[in-house]
Structure formats: structure tokens, C-alpha cells
């Protein structure tokens, strides 16, 4: 049975969404202790219709914009459980790439799969033994190599993977996307890769796809489409939204802790909580504006520039929230299974996203190269 969730922007005020996030928060200690794929939570997302919410005709139909609403939704899911937010972000990212690069037939096929409850993901990161897609005579490809950090691991039945396309034709070169029906293939999953400081429940294992054969209609877009802007760097606002959800959860947990200990009258504690609230709200304002720009700007470079600022600002807010939460709860609050200890581990890990230095440098470069006013 599917429970419709109405998400408006502004703001996300759905009682059902709030109840769902509250359940995730309640379950978080046992999910964390289990360390595996967050079964209950993902099933709830599926039942609530959130795996299809960005598809045509749904509440956050991505063909009609709604980016700010999607970011608010991601933040809320992240607030409930950061690992669930990570896996869910990959699902929405894959559906967006399919919307942008898929043929009408591919969109129909994969949207039908998403409506049927298949979980998607985007697995781009790899190590020295990364993926190669060798073109076959029939137009399909034979896959060789592995991906690392495959969030959701084999519970993701429709992963979007990337790899170097190799073939005889001159156009067979570059970074190529493919969507795999993983439930129809046997792959070598390596859970030993994933012994992280936090985010254990994202089960971001290493997976070896060698030997899998895909049809030409499983390839998404053309070589190098994955790296096209503003979609590649602009997408950083989605992980920033999930991270901000983690900071919001830290604020909630810190407040709870101080109330339980009767430490709410202390001016230093009040000040820190006030600062945390300002940081979380600042992040929300960035996200809302990023959503507007992403839907309405016709300038890809400006969208990328803004996304670079958003991810940098929100990572900084999250780091400040982590520090203030630690100071507020002290050592006792950092003992597992206290929520602050768990959130500290998860958020610190999830803040590690690709090329943060390059993102900030690009912000400065954009301004130094540009001729318009610095802010608009
Ligand atoms: C919980 C979790 C889940 C994930 N899930 C997925 C997933 O589902 N799919 C997926 O594709 N990926 C996934 N990833 C991987 C993620 O997208 C990043 O690739 C990864 O987190 C990069 O982290 P890093 O700190 O190693 O980054 P790096 O980019 O290596 O950054 C580390 C530091 O090195 C600096 N640096 C970067 N490049 C250079 C350079 N050339 N020279 C000098 N310094 C440099 C950076 O600025 C930074 O200071 C996941 C990661 C995490 C933590």
C-alpha cells in the first residue's frame, strides 16, 4: 500500500513526512548497532511513494523543477538517518540522470522500474582497478573492473555505473554511463572494503562487475555526458542537503541532552544552541536559493558556481555544529550509543566528499575571471 505524502515548497510541512523522519530517528540506534543496510527505513521510503516522487506526474516531478522541494526532502531524510539519506540521494540522482540523458524508451523502462520499487544508485567512484566497458560487435558492452563506495551495495537493483568506454570506433572513448539490472547478474561484492569511521549503514561496499554483458540500450547517454555541467558539480547541492539534515539532527540531539541534564539555564549552552540554530537555518537558505537557481537559471556556469559555494558553506556549518555539539555535551554525550556520538561519527564521515579544495578554489576563480558584480 502506498501512502501519499504531500510535500510543498515552501515549506515541507507534511505531517506524514515528519512522522516518517521521527521513526527513522527512533530506529537510528538499533539500525546503527546492526551496521547493515537500513531495511526498515528503505521499505518505509518505498511504501511512502518516495522512490517515485520525482517521476512525471508525482509531487516533486523533476520535469517541472521542484529542486528546492527535493533538497528539503533530502535534508529531512538526512535528519532522520544520514546513511538512508546517502542511499536515497543516489536513487534520486540516478533518476535525474535518466531524465537528462535517457531516450524516451529508456525513461519509460527505468521509470517503470522505479515505480515498481527498484532502488537506483550512482556508482562513479573507483580505484586503480576501475571499470572498463568493452564494446562488442552487437553494440553492447562487456564490463571489466570494480567500483568502490557503492552505497546500498547489492540492495540497489538498478545501479548507474560509469567506466571508460573502449572500442574500435573513434567515438568509443570517454567516460560512459550504464544502468545495470543487478538483480539479474552475479557480482563479487566486497564488504571488507567498508570498515568506516561512520556511515556504516550506507553499506558502501566495493563491487566487481567483471564479466557482465550489457546491451546497447543499457548504455545511458554518450561518452563524457556524465561529466557535463552544470549537472555534475551542480548536483553537490543534494549531498549538502543531506549533510545539513545531519546538522539539524545534531541540534535536536544536543537540545535533548541539555534538557535531560537540566543544563538549559547556562548562558554558554544557550549561546551554542543559538549558534547552531543559526547555522542550520543559514544552510536552509542556501539550499532554497540553490533550488531556485537550478530550476530557473539559464547560465550553467552560475549554477555550478552557486553549487560550489553551497557545498562549501554547508560543510563549514556542519563542522561548526559538530564542534559546538561536542563542547555542549562533553565526553559523556560522546559515548555510544548516545545519539550525539552516532551523529558525530556519521556526519564527520559523510562530510568527506570529492575535491572540496577544488570547489572553493573554483568559487574564487569564477569571481576573479568574471566582470559582473560579485553578488547578485
Ligand atoms: C558514506 C559515503 C558514501 C559514498 N557513496 C558513494 C556512492 O554511492 N557512489 C560514489 O560514486 N561514490 C560514493 N562515495 C565516494 C564519494 O563520492 C567521494 O568520492 C569520496 O568520499 C571522496 O572522499 P575523499 O575525502 O577521499 O576525497 P578527495 O577528493 O580525495 O579529497 C581528500 C582531500 O584531498 C584533496 N584533493 C583532492 N584531489 C587532490 C589532488 N589531485 N591533489 C591534492 N589534493 C587533492 C581534497 O581537496 C581533500 O582535501 C561515498 C563516500 C562516502 C563517505
From TrEMBL:
<keyword id="KW-0285">Flavoprotein</keyword>
<keyword id="KW-0274">FAD</keyword>
<dbReference type="Pfam" id="PF00441">
    <property type="entry name" value="Acyl-CoA_dh_1"/>
</dbReference>
<protein>
    <submittedName>
        <fullName>Acyl-CoA dehydrogenase</fullName>
    </submittedName>
</protein>
<dbReference type="InterPro" id="IPR046373">
    <property type="entry name" value="Acyl-CoA_Oxase/DH_mid-dom_sf"/>
</dbReference>
<dbReference type="GO" id="GO:0005737">
    <property type="term" value="C:cytoplasm"/>
</dbReference>
<dbReference type="InterPro" id="IPR037069">
    <property type="entry name" value="AcylCoA_DH/ox_N_sf"/>
</dbReference>
<dbReference type="InterPro" id="IPR036250">
    <property type="entry name" value="AcylCo_DH-like_C"/>
</dbReference>
<feature type="domain" description="Acyl-CoA dehydrogenase/oxidase N-terminal">
    <location>
        <begin position="26"/>
        <end position="114"/>
    </location>
</feature>
<dbReference type="Pfam" id="PF02771">
    <property type="entry name" value="Acyl-CoA_dh_N"/>
</dbReference>
<dbReference type="InterPro" id="IPR013786">
    <property type="entry name" value="AcylCoA_DH/ox_N"/>
</dbReference>
<dbReference type="GO" id="GO:0033539">
    <property type="term" value="P:fatty acid beta-oxidation using acyl-CoA dehydrogenase"/>
</dbReference>
<dbReference type="InterPro" id="IPR009100">
    <property type="entry name" value="AcylCoA_DH/oxidase_NM_dom_sf"/>
</dbReference>
<keyword id="KW-0560">Oxidoreductase</keyword>
<feature type="domain" description="Acyl-CoA dehydrogenase/oxidase C-terminal">
    <location>
        <begin position="235"/>
        <end position="348"/>
    </location>
</feature>
<dbReference type="GO" id="GO:0003995">
    <property type="term" value="F:acyl-CoA dehydrogenase activity"/>
</dbReference>
<dbReference type="GO" id="GO:0050660">
    <property type="term" value="F:flavin adenine dinucleotide binding"/>
</dbReference>
<dbReference type="InterPro" id="IPR009075">
    <property type="entry name" value="AcylCo_DH/oxidase_C"/>
</dbReference>
<dbReference type="InterPro" id="IPR050741">
    <property type="entry name" value="Acyl-CoA_dehydrogenase"/>
</dbReference>
<comment type="similarity">
    <text>Belongs to the acyl-CoA dehydrogenase family.</text>
</comment>
Amino acid at each position: 500500500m502506498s501512502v501519499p505524502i504531500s510535500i510543498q515548497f515552501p515549506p515541507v510541512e507534511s505531517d506524514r513526512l515528519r512522522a516518517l523522519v521521527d521513526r527513522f530517528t527512533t530506529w537510528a540506534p538499533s539500525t546503527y548497532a546492526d551496521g547493515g543496510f537500513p531495511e526498515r527505513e528503505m521499505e518505509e521510503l518505498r511504501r511512502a511513494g518516495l522512490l517515485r516522487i520525482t517521476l512525471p506526474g508525482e509531487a516533486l516531478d523533476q520535469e517541472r523543477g521542484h529542486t528546492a522541494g527535493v533538497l528539503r526532502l533530502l535534508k529531512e531524510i538526512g535528519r532522520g538517518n544520514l546513511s538512508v539519506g546517502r542511499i536515497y540521494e543516489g536513487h534520486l540522482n540516478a533518476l535525474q540522470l535518466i531524465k537528462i540523458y535517457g531516450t524516451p524508451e529508456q525513461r519509460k523502462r527505468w521509470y517503470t522500474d522505479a515505480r515498481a520499487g527498484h532502488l537506483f544508485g550512482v556508482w562513479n567512484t573507483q580505484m586503480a582497478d576501475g571499470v572498463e566497458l568493452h564494446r562488442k560487435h552487437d553494440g553492447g558492452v562487456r564490463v571489466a573492473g570494480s567500483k568502490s563506495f557503492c552505497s546500498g551495495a547489492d540492495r540497489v537493483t538498478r545501479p548507474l555505473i560509469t567506466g571508460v568506454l573502449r572500442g574500435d570506433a573513434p567515438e568509443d572513448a570517454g567516460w560512459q554511463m550504464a544502468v545495470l539490472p543487478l538483480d539479474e547478474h552475479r557480482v563479487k561484492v566486497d564488504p571488507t572494503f567498508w570498515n568506516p569511521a561512520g556511515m556504516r549503514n550506507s553499506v558502501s561496499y566495493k563491487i566487481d562487475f567483471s564479466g557482465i554483458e550489457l546491451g546497447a540500450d543499457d548504455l545511458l547517454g554518450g561518452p563524457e555526458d556524465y561529466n557535463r555541467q552544470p549537472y555534475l558539480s551542480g548536483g553537490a547541492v543534494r549531498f549538502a542537503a543531506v549533510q545539513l539534515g545531519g546538522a539539524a539532527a545534531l541540534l535536536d540531539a544536543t537540545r535533548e541532552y541539555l534538557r535531560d541534564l537540566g543544563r538549559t539555564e547556562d548562558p554558554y549552552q544557550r549561546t551554542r544552541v543559538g549558534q547552531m540554530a543559526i547555522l542550520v537555518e543559514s544552510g536552509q537558505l542556501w539550499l532554497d536559493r540553490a533550488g531556485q537557481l537550478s530550476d530557473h537559471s539559464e547560465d550553467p556556469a552560475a549554477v555550478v558556481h552557486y553549487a560550489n559555494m553551497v557545498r562549501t558553506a554547508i560543510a563549514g556549518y556542519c563542522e561548526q555544529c559538530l564542534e559546538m555539539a561536542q563542547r555542549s555535551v562533553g565526553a559523556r554525550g560522546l559515548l555510544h550509543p548516545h545519539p550525539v556520538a552516532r551523529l558525530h561519527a556519521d556526519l564527520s564521515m559523510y562530510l568527506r566528499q570529492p575535491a572540496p579544495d577544488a570547489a572553493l578554489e573554483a568559487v574564487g576563480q569564477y569571481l576573479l575571471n568574471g566582470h559582473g558584480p560579485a553578488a547578485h
